[in-house]
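It is worth pausing here to work through a concrete case rather than discussing structure prediction in the abstract. The textbook approach is simple: state the sequence, then state the predicted structure, then interpret. We follow exactly that order.
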Amino acid sequence: MIDPRNLWQNHLLDSLSITEYTRLSPHLELVELPRGEVIYESGDELRYAYFPTTCIVSMLYVMESGAPAEIAMVGNDGIIGVSLFLGGRTMPNQAVVRNAGYAYRLRARRLMQEFNRSGGCRNGALHDLLLRYIQGLITQIALTSACNRHHFVDQQLCRWLLLSLDRLPSNELIITQELIANMLGVRREGITEAARKLQQAGLIDYRRGRITVLDRSGLEARACECYHVVKTELDHLHISPRHSPLTSYIPLQKDEQVKSESLGSCQ
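Step two, the predicted structure:
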């Protein structure tokens, strides 16, 4: 069983040096995120950054008509709240928990204190790591847009399933066809037909809102180049799990009210 409390479940936290880990770990709070919870709405001021361990959060753009479309997904590969270190305090999109699980959250001020930390003439390691992640996230957003415009629904579904699996600790997703259709911005009938083809080919098993991937290599063979470009970019940027020996965790906080913390000046 995967323990969501282990910090190394999140690839960014897993990449921290012992020094960075020692500085940040006392300020990380383990929280449980149920499916459907809105982490922030478009225009909200961000008070926390989240590092998912076993959940997936969809970055959604909601049109004036109310129709949502997923522009990116964030799981154990990254962080939610990138606008904090890009010079903004709000996001133009909505962040909603798509797959329930756990995440570590960090107060915005504490993240920025670490992000702006420098040593000599060089920026701190977390600064460089987060900027590399942004490059990978931009690649995902760009390829999502291109894929949804140029590729068939079954190819889009393969890409979406594979990206989801890369961010989950199992080969199973609990999700409805209607929700997948909303994420991809296509008709539900298109997802139903695409899922039927994949199931007939023995690649997935789908029943009652639960998708189990049976043949990942077969799914990768059917996916368009978009998935492989995103995966290759993240691997190139070294944002991939290394399964470090860090096994410490912060107990889950039952009280949602977090005590004020005293933040010293950057060293």
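Step three, interpretation. The two ends are 39 Å apart (CA to CA). The longest strand covers residues 56-62.
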